[in-house]
Amino acid sequence: MLPMERMGKHAKDYVRFFYPGLIFCEQSVKPISGPDTRVKFPKGSIGYQRLWREEKTVKGETLTCSFHAVGGAVYKGKVLKLDQVIAKYGATSIAADNMRINNFERIVDTGRGIFPLEKDDEVIED
Description:
By secondary structure, the chain is mainly β. It has helices spanning 82-89, 94-102; strands at residues 11-19, 26-32, 47-58, 61-64, 68-80, 107-109, 114-116, 122-125. Strand 3 and strand 4 form a beta hairpin. Helix 1 runs antiparallel to helix 2 (94-102).
């Protein structure tokens, strides 16, 4: 479901790819041909999120609005709950402490980083 209604023929579709970064994910936004376009993970990407925004050209100038997310993010990796994080990394690991302190129910281990999962996020097990 779209977080806000698409506004007609001027809506353009995009995908935001996530890449491992030093502290936060690096991101790259690319246009796609439509909302049903199949998205492939580019090399090094750990996830993506579909986006849309309004774009309209008036007198040769392209006007754009902010990006709007379509659903949650999609990650490649393995979903872990707290007991699995403790078994894998230890009860006093940063991952386990972050889950407890921030009330994360589940995280994704992408093999290149660990990220909290939101309610609408999906994981493609690799």
